[in-house]
Amino acid sequence: MKSFTLSDLKKELKLLPAGDLVDICVSLAKYKKDNKDFLGYLLVDSYDKPGYINDIKGEIDAHFESLKHQSNLYYVKKSLRKLLRVLVKYTKYGNDKSMTCDLYIYFCQQMRDSKIPFKKSDQLINLYEQQLKKIKKNIEALHEDLQGDYTRELEALSL
C-alpha cells in the first residue's frame, strides 16, 4: 500500500466538507489512544498552556507521592522510566521548548526533593544526568532572556 506525503494529505483535507473532517478525526481517535490524547490536546489544552503544564506537574507529584514508600530501587527505576515516557509524550504534544524545560526541571526537582535514595544507584544517577542534558539542549534553543533564567535553575539541579 502506498504511503501518502503530508502535503498530499493536506491537499485532500482542504477539499473535504467540515462534516467529513469531523468523521475522519473521530475515526483516527477511535483506533489509537495516542491519537485521541493528541486530538484532545489540540482541541482543549493547547489554548491554556499554563493550565496544561500545571496538570502535568500534578501528575508528576502524584507519581512521586506513590514512590515515597517504595524501597526497592529497581521498581523505582522502572516507575521513573514510565513517567519519563509519559513526559516525552506530553512535551511532544506541546512542541514548545520552554514548556519542555519547565517540565523536565520540575521532574528533576521532584526527584531531588523526594526521599528516593537515587544516589545509591548508578542507573538512577545516569537517568537524572540524562534529563539534565535534555534540559541543557532545550535551553540552547530558547531566546537569550529565557536561557539565563533556565540556566540558573539548571545549575541549582547539578549533582
Overall description:
This protein is an all-alpha fold. It has a domain at 48-157. The chain is 79% helix and 0% strand. It has eight helices and no strands. The longest helix has 22 residues, at 73-94. The chain is globular.
List the topology elements:
Elements: H1 6-15, H2 18-31, H3 33-43, H4 49-67, H5 73-94, H6 97-113, H7 122-140, H8 144-157
Strand content: under 5%
The end-to-end span amounts to 51 Å
Number of helices: 8
What is the average per-residue confidence, as pLDDT, rounded to a whole number? 90
| SSE series | HHHHHHHH
Brief summary of the model shown:
With 159 residues, this protein is an all-alpha fold.
Characteristic terms for this protein:
159 residues, globular, mainly alpha
